[in-house]
Amino acid sequence: MRFWIMGAAAIGLLAVGTGSLNSARAANAGATSDGMRPPIMLAQAETKKPETTTQKVKREVKEETAEVKKKVKRAWKRIAGYKFDVACPALLPLSHSTCTETGKNRADAQAKCQAQSPLCSVTSAK
């Protein structure tokens, strides 16, 4: 019974789709007869503006500063952060990893680690 209903719905959608296609073709035929068709522009024909030296230097400096910021953040976490052991999944641990986070206190840092890895048990590292 379900197959008959699904088949009838598919035939109905097909009929509606072909009706709208025929009306769209008729509208396009009217536009081409008037000569109002927009020109076709190929993507390969468009030339890309070359990057200026100033833009290139700014992009490189931005990438370098982002990389340095990541290194500093990682080093700060190593020095001042709290370390936790993360076992996933919580009931039957199959994988272990460590999480280092900073916070106002140990409980705040542990909450951050727990938020990063849901459904895992987070315990203090030894």
What does this structure look like?
This protein has 126 residues and is of the alpha+beta class. It folds into two domains: 1-33; 71-126, no CATH class. It contains three helices and three strands; from the N terminus they run ααββαβ. The chain has helices at 2-34, 53-80, 106-116; strands spanning 82-88, 95-101, 121-124. A three-stranded antiparallel beta sheet has the order 2-1-3. The relative contact order is 0.08. The model has no long low-confidence stretch (mean pLDDT 80).
What are the salient characteristics of this protein?
single chain, 126 residues, alpha+beta, 2 domains, 3-stranded antiparallel β-sheet, 3 helices, flat
Question: How would you summarize the topology of this molecule?
Answer:
Layout: H1 2-34, H2 53-80, E1 82-88, E2 95-101, H3 106-116, E3 121-124
Antiparallel strand pairs: 1-2, 1-3
Explain briefly what this protein structure is.
57% of the residues lie in helices and 14% in strands. It is α+β, with helices and mostly antiparallel strands and 126 residues long.
